[in-house]
Amino acid sequence: MNIDFPPPSTGIYNNAGSCRRLANYLEHEDLERMQKGIYTEGFFNLKDDNLYKAQVIKEIDSNIGQLLKTDAKFYAMHVSPSEKELKMMGQTEQEQAKAMKRYIREVFIPEYAKNFNKGLSAEDIKFYGKIHFDRDRSDNEMNMHCHLIVSRKDQSNKVKISPLTNHRNTKKGAIKGGFHRTAFFENAEKGFDRLFGYNRQLPETFEYCNTMKNGSITEKLQMQEREIHQQSEKKRDIAPNKHILKPDFSTRQQQASASINHSNTIDAVASLFSILPSAADIAFSNNPEDEQPLRRPKKKKKGRRIGQ
Predict the structure, then answer these.
(1) Model's pTM, two decimal places?
(2) What is the bridge-based pairing of β-strands 2-4 and 74-80?
(3) SS3 124
(4) 162-205 confidence digits (pLDDT tens)
(5) What pLDDT shows up at residue 46?
(6) Statement: residue 71 has pLDDT above 60
(7) How far apart are the first and last CA of the chain?
(8) Running DSSP on this structure, what letter comes out for residue 215?
(9) pLDDT for the residue numbered 234
(10) How many Å apart are CA 165 and CA 148, to the nearest integer?
(11) Cβ of 59: how many Cβ atoms within 10 Å?
(12) Across 84-237, where does the E strand assignment appear?
């Protein structure tokens, strides 16, 4: 699961003014798919689907109480599942889109609100989502992902919230609360696994990827040790199935005893056949009742001639 916050810029993610430009951009895929007669998804929020772009722009642009002209008015977010995760969410685009909206509503936004440590809930967050099904520069068969526009102010238009702040649960000073992005990514990932029953392997986790990219040498080595340990545990779980092919001592003893008995039987049969007449003997016997073996006639001795 890849979650990121595109940095504000002078382009479509410029958040110092209206969100109109970003909202227009999020509809570009709809126009392409509609021309081809392909299914599209409208904007959605915590409770409603198929909302119009005009409503999105109006609601975000008007929720800017006490913000300065240069202050951020909204933030953009991307939620992009991997192909393996998408397969757990559904086989068709409609199934995946429905699952994505469920994930955003039941896991992502509640975790987002809770992570500010200001007593906020999902109902306090003003946001609009837009699902896309294609992704530039991707060779994957499945590319469904979600764009979010989240207001800088809560629903009451009183509380400022920013996922880009460097404060983390501060209790003193002008800024209370904060936003722990690492904790948010990890909790959103775990929530996905619980919701869809996804068995995430260690190399797929945000913790692993973040450690291998940004951790110290010691932290990377410890993470690799965890990976090796989990692989060993996995092999150990599979090992009992292999033991079925290897009989225990008592079974081997029984097999050896059976083998000995089998050999004795063969020897006994062989001895029996050794005392019976062979097929050749029966064939050369003219009298079936004659049990005496045939004897060759003796040669007559030649007498000596006189004069020799």
Answers:
(1) 0.74
(2) antiparallel
(3) helix
(4) 999 987 766 666 666 789 999 999 999 999 999 999 999 999 99
(5) 98
(6) yes
(7) 122
(8) S
(9) 80
(10) 18
(11) 18
(12) 127-132, 145-151
Q: In this predicted model, what pLDDT tens digit does every residue of 248-280 receive, in sequence order?
A: 545 445 554 554 454 454 454 344 344 444 444
Residue with tokens 């081997």: 252
Note the residue count of the chain.
308
What does the DSSP assignment read for 188-227?
Answer: HHHHHHHHHT----GGGSHHHHHHHHHS-HHHHHHHHHHH
Q: How far apart are CA 64 and CA 57, in angstroms?
A: 12
Backbone phi, then psi, for 250, in 5-degree steps?
Answer: -65, -40
From residue 48, alpha-carbon distances to 52, 55, 101 in Å are 11, 12, 10
* Residue 222, number of CB atoms within 10 A of its CB: 13
Question: What is the token pair recorded at 38?
Answer: 């392909």
Cα–chain center distance at 92: 18
Q: 77 in helix, strand or coil?
A: strand
Contact 184, 111 (CB under 8 A): yes
> Is the predicted pLDDT of residue 158 greater than 70, yes or no?
yes
Spatial CA neighbour of 149 closest among 37, 22, 25, 24: 22
CA 123 – CA 47 distance, rounded (Å): 9
Q: How far is CA 225 from CA 12, 124, 209, 222, 229, in A?
A: 43, 42, 15, 5, 6
